[in-house]
Design brief:
The chain has helices at residues 52-58, 96-99, 107-118, 124-134, 139-146, 160-176, 184-193, 198-201, 213-218, 220-234, 240-252, 268-292; strands at 11-25, 31-39, 42-48, 64-74, 78-88, 202-205, 208-211. The chain contains twelve helices and seven strands. It has two domains: 3-98, Nucleic acid-binding proteins (OB fold (Dihydrolipoamide Acetyltransferase, E2P)), CATH 2.40.50.140; 101-287, Hypothetical protein af1432, CATH 1.10.3210. The strands form two sheets. The chain has a five-stranded mixed β-barrel with strand order 1-2-3-5-4. The chain has a two-stranded antiparallel sheet with strand order 6-7.
């Protein structure tokens, strides 16, 4: 049985992945362990109050556990399991196809599509920059190809960063011809590179995704700017104007200071990338919510990324 098939009050005996674990302090000074457990359709919380040390050794991030208990939906805290028993899952009990999410297209197909759009960039300086990042066999490409796009809200799985940046670049390429004054090649280059800082900001171990120390200390946007800035400086004759245009897209793609961008979009190209990036993230949240939607439901619960619930009209209510 999958997480999105569970009903309130149901007894469960499931193999789930440990997405995260936090040691919490109670008001009386005691400790408890809060686990985030999940399969590819959804996630639940589990609170461990007894044998914390022993359970903590079993519950490594990205590992699979077998958990028995009672499932309920708390009005404030959401889905959770009252744990009666928990142990490490045996290898024969683990089905990664059921436990881990992934993109609808194969990584090989997305790689081919990315190379196709890169081939449309004729500016030699932009082409050299993209080749240094995405060239076959480069260390950066191998990292980029496998990396997730987020920890939680959209494309939070292997190859998610490739899926997200490719879709943003394809959309930017298609729309650039619609509005006058947009340098399509600058915009597409910026779209492909806008989230490059996530290579340093996120660490993925198995199915677990977490922020790195650098990600927490500096943030993905400064890390991405720094990576591309250093690379541009190593490329002979890269024009300052072109460097400023690409780097501005990276710095401003979150769109607002309160969302983590040190500057707001000040060019047509940066504005276009920001808008498409935001759209891609929000639509990716719909994909995530639909996968997690309980059977018979057409409305999701409140989602922080969307600021409300999501409605799926083609779902037949039970």
């Amino acid at each position: 049985m999958l997480v999105n098939q569970l009903t309130d009050g149901q007894d469960v005996d499931l193999v789930l992945l440990v997405r995260d674990r936090q040691l919490k302090i109670k008001r009386d000074g005691g400790e408890y362990l809060k686990l985030g457990l999940a399969d590819r359709t959804g996630s639940v919380s589990a609170i461990i109050r007894d044998d914390i040390a022993a359970v903590g050794e079993v519950c490594t991030a990205g590992g699979a556990v077998r958990v028995a208990g009672r499932y309920s939906v708390h009005p404030r805290y959401g889905p959770e399991v009252a744990v009666q028993a928990l142990r490490a899952a045996e290898p024969h009990e683990v089905d990664l196809d059921l436990l881990t999410d992934g993109p609808p297209r194969s990584a090989d197909q997305m790689e081919a599509d990315l190379r196709e759009i890169v081939a449309t960039i004729h500016n030699p300086h932009l082409g050299a920059l993209l080749d240094a990042i995405f060239g076959a066999g480069t260390p950066t490409w191998e990292l980029f190809r496998a990396a997730p796009a987020a920890k939680r809200y959209h494309q939070a799985y292997r190859h998610g960063l490739l899926e997200h940046c490719l879709s943003v670049a394809q959309s930017v390429s298609a729309i650039a011809a619609t509005f006058p004054g947009i340098d399509r090649e600058v915009a597409v280059t910026g779209a492909l590179l806008h989230d490059i800082g996530k290579l340093d900001a996120y660490a993925s171990t198995g199915a677990a995704i977490d922020m790195t120390d650098l990600g927490k200390l500096q943030g993905e946007i400064p890390l991405g700017y720094y990576r591309i800035r250093r690379l541009i400086e190593d490329l002979p004759g890269f024009p300052d104007r072109l460097a400023a245009a690409v780097l501005h897209i990276i710095l401003s793609h979150h769109g607002a200071l309160e969302h983590g961008s040190p500057v707001v979009p000040c060019t047509r190209e940066a504005t276009l990338v920001h808008m498409i990036d935001n759209l891609g993230g929000r639509l990716g949240s719909f994909d995530r919510l639909e996968k997690e939607l309980p059977q018979g439901s057409r409305w999701s619960g409140f989602d922080r990324a969307l600021g409300g619930g999501a409605f799926f009209a083609d779902r037949q209510a039970a």
